[in-house]
Amino acid sequence: MAIETNADAYLPVAIVLIKLYFQLFFENLFSFSNEKPTTVKQENNSSPTTDFDSSWDLYLMAALLGLIGALFTIRRQRVALRQPPVQ
Questions:
Q1: Distance between CA atoms of 76 and 72, rounded to whole angstroms?
Q2: pLDDT digits (tens, 9 = 90+) for 16-25
Q3: Counting CB atoms within 10 angstroms of each CB, which of 24, 30, 58, 59 has the fewest?
Q4: Which helix (H) or strand (E) element contains residue 35?
């Protein structure tokens, strides 16, 4: 609905949808049993997953930066191998 209202909202909506898909994937991945979860004593009204939920974008940026760095390094090595040695 936000995309229909404003074309500039496409990227933020896509990012939020990707985040929701990842959260659903990890919830389904780590729920091995059908038992009800035990209550966890929470202090300061924070859940155990607050750290990941609040900084998921930092982890994503770090992973993408690592991927870009690896691809850049591989490309530079290929170019260096193709060039004839300097005499």
A1: 6
A2: 888 888 888 8
A3: 30
A4: none
